[in-house]
């Protein structure tokens, strides 16, 4: 009997009398994908573009496709702007983790903590104010951030269409990718980003949706590909 469970979706296999429930379970060589919700609403056009094309893959060593060597005690957050998407650039990324951080993570990995798709994307850990625009609208209080290096404007080094930036964290002993996914699903760990350089010159901010939203499934983790939630 073939029993299949689609990630993030619960359903009943009536003929077999089996209920399959897959709740944010990352299978080997796959990443769990999160879509984003706009929180600033400055432009309907930019809001739609950001929500439809920008995404985050969360994975461990088995699902990594970035060329960065990971250990089983690390989790990678890969923020992607796919090929062919509307003009836009992810320039600041923030994490709101309440007490979750001390429970899950040791901190940013000392080796390959921040990596990217190429020389056009240059990020560093934020040292100033951690302020996600519109964050107050959704009680988002940033605790950690990375940002594009300023070089003729931060958008010059941001994540444009066809590019990505990855942030790698070391897990505490005994913690797993599944613990991270559960925290993102229940809202105790959230990711948000500021997006600039839309075609009309505008900017927007977004916060991740739970992967259980819509009919999301696991992604292959390739920039610009993969099946994601409907948001």
Question: How would you characterize this protein structure?
Answer:
There is one protein chain. The chain is mainly beta and about 230 residues long. The chain has a single domain (about 25-210), classed as Sandwich (Immunoglobulin-like), CATH 2.60.40. The protein is built from 3 helices and 14 strands. It has helices at about 45-55, 100-105, 175-185; strands at about 10-15, 20, 30-35, 35-40, 55-60, 75-80, 90-95, 105-110, 115, 125, 145-150, 165-170, 190-195, 205-210. A hairpin with a 7-residue loop joins strand 13 and strand 14 (about 205-210). The chain is globular, with a radius of gyration of 17 Å. The chain starts with 9 loop residues before the first strand and ends in a 23-residue tail after the last strand.
| Share in β-strands | 25-35%
The total of helices stands at 3
What is the oligomeric state here? single chain
Which range best describes the helical content: under 10%, 10-25%, 25-40%, 40-55%, 55-70% or over 70%? 10-25%
Low-confidence stretches: 1-29, 213-231
Give the N-to-C terminal Cα separation. Answer: 32 Å
Total count of strands: 14
Number of domains: 1
CATH architecture: Sandwich
Main β sheet profile:
6 strands, antiparallel
- The radius of gyration is 17 Å
Topology order in helix (H) and strand (E) letters: EEEEHEEEHEEEEEHEE
CATH class (first level) name: Mainly Beta
Inertia-based shape: globular
Structural class: mainly beta
Mean pLDDT value: 80
CATH fold description: Immunoglobulin-like
